[in-house]
Amino acid sequence: MAKALAVRDSAERMDPVTSLPFFGVHLAAIIGVCLVGWRWWYPVAAIAAYYVRMTFVTAGYHRYFSHRAFKTSRWFQFVLAFMAETSAQKGALWWAAHHRDHHKYSDQPEDIHSPRQNGLWWSHVGWILSRKYDETKYERIKDFAQYPELRWLNKYHLVPPVALAVVMFLVGGAPLLVWGFFVSTMLLWHGTFTINSLSHVFGSTRYPSNDDSKNNWLLALITGGEGWHNNHHYYQSTANQGFFWWEVDTSYYFLKALSWLGVTWDLRKPPKHIRDGVRAPMPSSLPSLPSVAESVPPRVAARPID
Fold first, then answer.
1. DSSP bridge pairs for 204
2. Residue 197 lies in a domain
3. Which end of the chain is more exposed for a tag (fewer CB within 10 A), N or C?
4. % residues pLDDT > 90 (the chain)
5. How many domains does the chain have?
6. 273 is a domain residue
């Protein structure tokens, strides 16, 4: 508690200017709901937009760019990044680079969003509102930073959410803009952030992971399977975070369906001895990628290779 209440250095305090869009979206959602009235399909649109984007956050930002838990083509790699960025959680390279550091230092002093170290508010949203973590750590994401289209999308990370907001307005006017974009984005932010905060505080511990990660079925339902967080921290490189059939993991179901269509392949799953809690040396979750310029057939070059 003393650490959580300690005065943070000026670089880590909330920046009032760069935080304006965050609070602006909240205000637009709350005030907008009061202004556009009510129809049954408004919350349905919000929930649909929430879960579609949450799936790309979990499958794209997290399981692909952060952990390389499956393979896909270069074109769908771009789709994953674009759709994940409609969540307005900055660029895919920024997101994945910081997440890799989280696993490297999980719940240690160097972990940038640990409830143990800095309290729930900081781990949930405080660190995002700090100017200190604005920059992308390209040295932590060299495998994907070699793709110029991903670097462009990372630099212009506001393009996808703004494009989505425009489409929502053109299709459904102010009501769809308010419910389908602002309300769903607000909920999507806090749904995603619960994994940084609540899943390191509330839930059960199946495996010894040397941190405070927990399994939480409710958070799993909210986040498309990310709530099986202790599973994930125990064995990070898998496409499925629900290790057992009763652990609902809709993001994995999405990836599995894509594999039947040939869009994704080589989805990693935990070996039986891992599920049984018998630890063995874990294969690296970050195998090297070939250079874009390597002289290999174009379709092969487009595929991240283990």
1. 215
2. yes
3. N
4. 82
5. 1
6. yes
